[in-house]
Design a protein that fits this description.
The chain folds into two domains: about 1-65; about 80-124, no CATH class. It is about 60% helix and about 0% strand. It has helices spanning about 15-30, 40-60, 70-95, 110-120.
Length: about 120
């Protein structure tokens, strides 16, 4: 098993728990008729518990600091928002440059955007 650098609180054992949760959910959705896979809903609960544990473990080191929540949410925003906005930019570039106006058969669920822009008479 690869060693993590010191000072890093990454727990490699949780990867196995994530894998189990993913498998449970997939089996539940892809084989709903198999009785044993009906417990797959527990995978979602497992994700919630794991998320709570991981978020709490990220907050605990800053517990005695002032502006705890501000610092925590600032770090979360710096981690999430750049990728989010990059995705939006790439999506809309793809949308306006590549997709034809006949989007009814598009595999990207883009028909809703077509209807939205058509309804508001916004032309691009």
């Amino acid at each position: 098993m690869p060693q993590q650098p010191e000072g890093n609180n990454y727990n490699t054992g949780l990867n196995g728990v994530r894998g189990i949760a993913i498998i449970l959910v997939l089996l539940f959705h892809y084989f709903p008729e198999v009785k044993i896979f009906k417990i797959g809903w527990t995978g979602v609960d497992l994700f919630f518990v794991l998320s709570g544990f991981l978020l709490t473990s990220r907050i605990l080191p800053f517990l005695l600091e002032k502006k705890l929540l501000l610092k925590f949410y600032w770090n979360r925003a710096l981690r999430i928002l750049p990728l989010y906005y990059l995705f939006l930019i790439l999506f809309f570039l793809f949308w306006f440059m590549v997709i034809d106006r006949k989007v009814e058969q598009s595999p990207f669920y883009s028909h809703n955007w077509y209807l939205f822009f058509g309804f508001f008479k916004i032309g691009f």
